[in-house]
Amino acid sequence: MPGKVADFLRAAELDDAERTSLDHGQAVRRGMGYTLRVTAVPTIHRQLLNRCQTLNGTAAVPAQRKARREYENRVNTLGE
């Protein structure tokens, strides 16, 4: 998951399973930002993706919208 999405989700209200997944993720530096490697079942990833829907709107900066789209593309490639 892109770091901009992870930062947004850390400030959001999450349930216990989602919070645990984020807390146990491993941060990997990527250029100027980072990627958070989260090991979770696809349903948790889909729940996290739904929680960051507001990053699709006009209130988000372009980098946040792009990060959300990238995360959505990764989640959509997961099998259930």
Structure described in brief:
The chain has 80 residues and is an alpha+beta fold.
What are its keywords?
80 residues; 4 helices; alpha+beta; single chain; two-stranded antiparallel ribbon; 12% strand
Q: Give the uncertain stretches in residue-range form.
A: none
Order of neighbouring strands in the sheet with most strands: 1-2
Number of domains: 1
Q: Tell me the radius of gyration.
A: 12 Å
Largest sheet: 2 strands, antiparallel
Helix content: 40-55%
Distance between the termini: 18 Å
Number of DSSP helical runs: 4
Oligomer: single chain
Strand elements, count: 2
Strand content: 5-15%
Provide mean pLDDT, rounded.
89
Order of helices and strands: HHEEHH
Provide the structure class. Answer: alpha+beta
Shape: globular
Structure explained in plain terms:
It contains four helices and two strands, in the order ααββαα. It has one domain (3-77). α3 runs antiparallel to α4 (62-77). The protein has helices spanning 3-10, 16-23, 42-51, 62-77; strands spanning 26-30, 33-37. The radius of gyration is 12 Å and the shape is globular. Strands 1-2 form a two-stranded antiparallel ribbon. It is of the alpha+beta class and 80 residues long. The mean pLDDT is 89. Helices cover 52% and strands 12% of the residues.
Q: Which secondary structure elements does this structure contain, and how are they paired or packed?
A:
Blueprint: H1 3-10, H2 16-23, E1 26-30, E2 33-37, H3 42-51, H4 62-77
Antiparallel strand pairs: 1-2
Helix pairs in contact: 3-4
